[in-house]
Amino acid sequence: MKDHAGFLPSYAPHEMTESPSPSPASQHARSSSLSMDDPTVQKSLFDMFNKRGYNLISPSKSMVNGNNDSFSSTASSSMSSVIGFREPLHGQTPIHIAIRRGDVHVVEALLKSGDADVLQMRDDHGNTPLHFAVGTSSRRMSVSIATRMVAFLLDAGASVHAVNHKGLSPIMVHLLTVRKDDPSILTMLLKHGSNANACVDRVPLLHLAVAAKLPMFTATLIRHGAHLHATNDLGQFLREVAPMNMLVTMLAHLTSAPSFLPLDAHSQCMDCRRHIKPAKRQNLPILFRWFFFRSTSTQATHCFHCGWIYCSSCTTIQPVRDGLPSSCRRSEAEEEEDRLSRPLSKRLPLSRRPPADMKKDVSIRVCRICANLLKERLVKAASAGARASLYRFQQQQLPSASTTSASASLHHTPR
């Protein structure tokens, strides 16, 4: 078979021919005379697929009666009739069935056949081969096999933006069908351009991962830019619906600072559920604020790290700014809001001097979750720094110790 010697390779050689192995000369003559356009070759492939249990039918019903002319009449390219075989129930093509069955070698062979149309084939529901591959993890199939098939399809140029008849892209299908908290396939889809903020029936993917109790999926989506402040179809924020362990996982993987949630977006503290009001008294005289607004338990504040809304009782001023990610930068307005939310004794005065000459302000207002998270991060960084310093000190002592031992051996005189 010219130019298709690798198609459906040695895993089923007995299905291709029943004769003994021919000589190299006869093999060359046969490969020169046969090609994928040959109806006999197409008929052989059709029979081989069905022997493997694919239950295919020809694009033309006359093929069922053994009429080889149907192959040549329906072929528009060297592989069109082969990839056009369908099973009658859902209209799945050979590559759909191979993916569903986990036949990695068949998938690889079809992709290497040279026909670009194989990636665009759809079943009766509009599903592409990539839709099938990302949904195989919900079946009795190892994650490694599913990951290999997805990698083959993406490397061959499969589109991550194709949608089926229900308007679902491959990443949506993956989040709806996945059962194991292994983000390997999700990471590949995101690296090839899938939208981390896509919604299924007005529910963001991040909320779907939380509902399915997949903490590593939430962390992967956060790292690739999923919005932390996205709400579900009921208008609920992640802080209200996610369990504590998943909240910690998401916040630990923040690489950039999400903007402060508008104060009018939520009327309750996201921790204690106390009714809060936006604080609009920064421009009032200090004595007036102290006399009339001494009780600040219902004052709305923001966590500097996550940007969610809390009452002032559920946030504290902590010297944990150095625990923030290096790319976490707040706007001047948000920095000013955080500074004005602190008591007068904990504020640093504004200065017009260059930042290099200004005393570094390490205190920020954070919620309880972020405070513990940033403190733990600082402790780990300090521990790692101490170990590095100890290692450098030990390396510096090694040459002096070896020199001392060498000089001692030179001055040693035997009795």
From TrEMBL:
It holds the Pfam family Ank_2. The keyword Signal does not apply. Keywords: ANK repeat, Repeat. PANTHER family: ANKYRIN REPEAT AND PROTEIN KINASE DOMAIN-CONTAINING PROTEIN, ANKYRIN REPEAT-CONTAINING PROTEIN-RELATED. ANK repeats lie at residues 90-114, 125-165. Gene3D superfamilies: Ankyrin repeat-containing domain, Zinc/RING finger domain, C3HC4 (zinc finger). InterPro entries: Ankyrin_rpt, Ankyrin_rpt-contain_sf, Znf_RING/FYVE/PHD. Residues 1-37, 325-355 are annotated as: Disordered. Residues 342-353 have a biased composition (Low complexity). It comes from Aphanomyces astaci. This is Uncharacterized protein. Residues 18-35 have a biased composition (Polar residues). Transmembrane segments: none annotated. The lineage of its organism: Eukaryota, Sar, Stramenopiles, Oomycota, Saprolegniomycetes.
